[in-house]
Amino acid sequence: MSDTDSEVERTNWLDEYMYLLREAETPKRFIYWSGLATISAVIKDQVWLPKRLYQLYPNIFVMMIGKSGLKKSFAVSKAKELVTAVNGTRVISGQNSIQGIITELGTHKTDEKTGAIQKDSHCFIAAEEFGDLIIEDPTAFLTLTNLYDRHYHQEWTRTLKNSPKQKLTNVNITLLGASSPSYFKRAVPDIHITGGFLARFLVLYEDKKSRLNPLVRPLTDEEKETIYSPEKLIPHLKTIQKLKGPFTWEDNESLTFFENWYYNFYDLERSDDTGYEDRINDHILKVAMLLALSEPEPELVLKERHIEKAIEHTIALIPNIHRATMGIGKSQLAQAMQLVLK
User: Fold this and answer.
1) Nearest CA to 3 among 28, 34, 31?
2) Side by side, which strands form the sheet with 47-50?
3) In this structure, how many other beta carbons lie within 10 angstroms of the beta carbon of residue 57?
4) pLDDT digits (tens, 9 = 90+) for 292-313
5) Which neighbouring-strand residues pair with 322?
6) 166 — phi, psi (to 5°)?
């Protein structure tokens, strides 16, 4: 959205989310993807896209990378606030060990308002500083990599020496993290950059604020009607929270549109050590499902415009993966190359 935000047509929940937060200095792409992560966390594994050999669920991992002062935490905090208010998904934030996260996922929760017992292992991980989220543990990244793939884990077990057996059911994790470039590289070992962990992330990289706004002037009565408050966004989230079942394609044209993109994209020789481009087809379908859920009257139907927009969003992130991983390795040559590339 531009500085003429008030003139932008708002056609769906994401548009409204962006509009209500239009005065934030946080990069707009960070805010937009925090909105997608919010929808992902609310819907959990209640919807999916059948893919012949497996079911694809719309859980996403989003990583916002930018220098200190870009107000990345603001985007994380808004998503966390909304998911908490909707009430139906565990929210995990602050400093944790991977063992603590697994224990939390394996614990049955009783909703204080409804009395319903939450048995499934669903959660939204909100990491305002990703480097502080996971207390140093060599197994943490491999475990998160495995747990990302919901379609592989109807049931997940872990047995450690001198510890009780841990069992998770219907694992579904959405993660929204933020980090500075230096913290991110320190937090994520090189082996996990190229070993599949980063491939599961939608990486955003920004280096300047979206606008300058001291935010000190009192709001007029008119402005109060068009500024952010959770109550304006929660009703739609509670509507999609009730949806369950498989996505279908609107028509053969929309399905063929995706297939044509798929063959054209993968027909070219690709060079990507992280694996993001190899997985981008599933990223596109996940994002397309979230875009469909953002519609004013959401239904479990994938349309060509959802696919087209999802392709646009995910392809745009390819340079960010390479930018975030420049100079992988500890050698002096790698460090020198990083400076040259920058």
Assistant:
1) 28
2) 55-56, 47-50, 245-246
3) 23
4) 999 999 999 999 999 999 999 9
5) none
6) -110, 135
Contact between residue 64 and residue 72 where contact means Cβ atoms under 8 Å apart:
yes
Using CA atoms, how far residue 223 sits from 15, 24, 211, in Å, is 18, 14, 18
Using N-to-C axis directions, what is the helix angle for 28-43 and 72-86, rounded to 10°?
Answer: 20
329 band by pLDDT with thresholds 50, 70 and 90: very low
User: How many angstroms separate the CA atoms of 217 and 5, rounded?
Assistant: 19
Overall pTM > 0.85: yes
Print burial letters for 59-95: b (CB count within 10 Å at least 16), e (below 16): bbbbbbbbeeebbbbbbbbbbbbbbbebebbbebbee
The predicted-structure confidence for 152-162, as pLDDT tens digits, reads as follows: 766 777 655 55
Residue 130, burial from CB neighbour count under 10 angstroms (0-12, 13-18, 19+)? buried
167 close to 157: Cβ distance less than 8 angstroms: yes
Judge residue 330's burial from the number of C-beta atoms within 10 Å of its C-beta, 0-12 exposed, 13-18 middle, 19 or more buried.
Answer: exposed
